[in-house]
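A favour, since you know our structure tokens better than I do. Would you make up a two-line entry for one protein for me to read? Write everything out right here, beneath this request.
=====
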Amino acid sequence: MSNEADEVAVPGESSSDDIDWVLFGLGSALLLIIVSTIVLFPQGSAAVIDALYQNVTSQLGVLYVFTAIALLGFLLWVAISKHGDVVLGANRKPVYSHFSWAAMLFCAGIGASLIYWGATEWAFYYAEPPFGLEPESQAAVTWAVSYGIFHWGPIGWAFYCLPALALACTYHVKQIPSLRLSTACSPVLKSQTDKWPGRVVDLIFIVGVLGTAATGLGFGTSLVASATTELTGITDGIGLQFLIILLATLLIALSVYRGLDRGIKLLSNINATLALVLIVFVLLAGPTKFILEMGSVALGNVFQNFFTMLFWTDPLENADFVESWTIFYWSWWLAMGPFIGMFVCKISEGRTIRQLIFGMLGWGSFGCALFFIVLGNYALSLELNGSYPVIAQAIDVSPSSAIAGIIALLPFGKFWLVYIAIIGLVFMATTYDSASYTIAAGATRSLAEHQHPARWHRVFWAIALGLLPSCLLFIGGLRELQTASLLASLPLLVIYAVLAVSVLRMLKEFAAAAR
């Protein structure tokens, strides 16, 4: 059998013999158990999920805050130190252009969730502001337009960057032919890397991807469904949402089947361009002066109060702002980190460590800030001048229905509803084709620098990724989707500490070899 597999193997792809069947089986079985439990016991599952979210955020939330602080400081130190000059791989020139590299990391890193929250997140902060401020006050407006930029800024991208850095050191610099998270931890795990401790690390990675895929695909599905409903009048129900997940899953499967360059890179470049066109049109067709002025206020407020926002934990428990938003976001970025990091590592050959860190923190934060400034302030202007009840629609119905409503008010509104539905669908695909690619890579024992996981393996995980969000949308909504990321991120708090120590040891090793 193995000889036949080798004979038909596609050049540049691993064969079935390279797959870690134990890890593949454990990941598949775990997904099947979770999905079956939710389908068979929907009400009980929803109650358990809600209790878990409340307990974890209230009791362990401060751990995420301290992790975020330490992580940003560590990465900045590495970038500005002499270690920042280390080139990732033997190729001294980046394999991908700056635009393609930035487009792929941006589209993989944020997906349709950025449109989902970019236009409406401020509404929740305006109605229930941080720091005990009076709701819907002038001060609440300033913080409402600022906090989204903070949550989607350098801290979030730092959670992506550490796994990318650790994997790049082992994969490109040390030339270890494996993209498994356990391999990035090998300076600490040592001989246990290929034994059960390493397998546990890799299984946690797969769980993290499945959890965050459920969250991101759920947000994207709601966005596309609301745009479709606004355009056609079709009821936004479970049937429509399942159909959208099916379409996204097929698009993801097609993309990963075509491979990194002909599928994922192509979709990312197209979607980055489409997103920029949308942002430019809204800026020019909307209240341009108001958008730019509020954007200036928001950026200034974030720069002035960055450390206040970073360290704030609300110890007096005046509200649940930190638990509902900051802790959720840090857990989401943390759970997504290994899969985004693995993908960014794969596309970063030829760049220096400094370029990798500043590129991820800078380009990622800049792209997210654009969405929040333009889409968010356009929506805010509609609320303030009475053109559309954004807050009521976002909070009482859903953020996605509010987005559909404000997009419909643009010139040529029906065209832009179709446009945003397409962007949402493709954003879902560009994020989770990367996810299925990296799960397949993580469950492959050996993967050379210019080799890719087997096609059927990538397509299997692309299809599997659609199962969990379908079930979570079936039993509930936002809280269930948030909890999937939160629970998936818990064990990764420990693994991130191991990754940081591993990076330190590898950097010392590289410095000693260069002397």
